Amino acid sequence: GYRGLFESVLETGIGGDHCVARGLMVSIVGPYSYENEDCPMNPNQKPDSISDGGNSTYWAWVSGSHNLEIYLKIAEKNVGNPYEAAAEMMRFVGYTEEYIDQACSYSLTVLPRGNLRGLVVPTWASLILQFEESPFNVTFDWDVSRRLTLQGFSNFTGISGCAGNVIDDTCLQEYLETYSILSSIKSEAGTIACVEEFRGMIRNGESASVTQARAFFHGCVDANPLFTGLGYGYSATDNQLTEREYIARNSRLDEIGAALFTLYNPYEAVIQNYTRDSVTLLNQN
Q1: Per the omega criterion (within 30 degrees of 0), is the bond before 31 cis?
Q2: Distance (Å, rounded) from C-alpha 66 to C-alpha 119?
Q3: For residue 54, which of 257, 250, 261 has the smallest C-alpha distance?
Q4: Fewest CB within 10 angstroms: 52, 84, 97, 221, which?
């Protein structure tokens, strides 16, 4: 299967040029804790659903089969280094740097496309429509919707005030406060609770500024600063669009026939480095 192929390429650096069945999709899982809340960004351990949060997380981000082929090429370039391979894969699909951490663990889940529910290509227009409908019932001002569609990605700094792709003290206070409140609620109670908090803050969304609306999409659905709203991912490493991206209803892995395997965890990395150093010392002797 794909796991054996990926691990072989990562170990040997050979075989990265393979075709993958078009009926497969993929999602990177993480960051999460391996044990004892060791990941500073997520105390939870590996989830049993596509995305962390189980039933409380409404959507999960997934990619098409071409990404599986690209991941093999990334493994071939980073032979023997699972962390760098995982980090390059995450950057390719639009992770921002604060979520790529050697203290955390990451997995890859391979999914049969036909088993996914509610598969959607997320553009600004399609996401706004999703949130207008039940169970969310959020209504944005027409001009806010227009500005998000035209500038939500290309003018992220102008809308949020953030100097880069990381949320920090350069961001406008309005953005920082809205995002901090909503992302904390999503983490603790899920997507619908996050949306209900926003509706309470902003009169169902109708009085939201474009800054608050952009923070809402970031906090409640993980549409981070690299979300293009065009239906394609974006790599900040290469400053270019990558492959088509999707969202699907978050589902238990065993219910959709998904395969999950570890990309990187810090404990296996320590063991691998120890083994590699031991072999080197034996060869020197």
Answers
A1: yes
A2: 17
A3: 250
A4: 97
